[in-house]
Design goal:
With 167 residues, this protein is mainly beta. The chain is 6% helix and 42% strand. It has a 6-stranded mixed β-sheet, with no helix packed on it. A 5-stranded antiparallel β-sheet has the order 5-6-2-1-7. The protein has a two-stranded antiparallel sheet with strand order 3-4.
Length: 167
């Protein structure tokens, strides 16, 4: 598990005074400000965050060191990370997406299906995007207790009981 967890991304500039449009990936979107300062994925560049107002699909925010529209435009797409120890601990059977990506996926018979490429959410519930050598394309597995009865972060694996015909 990485010490950094992605909590947001810069979607572009907002206005002409150096504010950015910020997308929050937090369960409570406003909490992104509480994890300030945020870093880039290397952890070298640090950005104090102050949310200024809610805007469509995110927030307008001030990032430390970003003073002009041109600087804000230059960091469009920048993913922002918080240290894992800044984030709240999760109850049982809840996981950070970053912890699931890369885990091997086995069926209930112990056969390797593939590994988790990404975690998707299109409104109803989370879906694990599985890719593997025996699969022609990626497969979306519902991340429910019925379809994924076991997540073992310590061993780096998931035991899946996929719906009939999915694989």
């Amino acid at each position: 598990m990485s010490d950094l967890v992605c909590v947001g991304a810069v979607a572009g500039s907002f206005g002409v005074r150096g504010e950015v449009r910020l997308k929050s990936f937090c369960a409570v979107p406003e909490d992104i400000e509480a994890y300030s300062p945020l870093t880039d994925e290397t952890g070298k560049d640090s950005y104090p965050v102050i949310l200024t107002r809610a805007v469509k699909n995110g927030f307008a925010a001030r990032l430390g060191g970003i003073e002009t529209k041109e600087q804000a435009d230059a960091i469009k797409g920048l993913r922002l990370y918080a240290r894992r120890d800044q984030l709240p601990s999760l109850p049982d059977n809840e996981y950070y997406h970053a912890d699931l990506i890369g885990l091997e996926v086995y069926d209930t018979g112990g056969t390797l299906i593939g590994h988790v490429k990404a975690v998707q959410n299109h409104g109803a519930s989370d879906l694990l995007e599985i890719q593997g050598p025996g699969l022609k394309s990626t497969v979306l597995l519902p991340f429910t207790l019925a379809a994924v009865p076991t997540v073992d972060l310590g061993k780096g694996r998931i035991i899946a009981d996929p719906p009939e015909g999915l694989f």
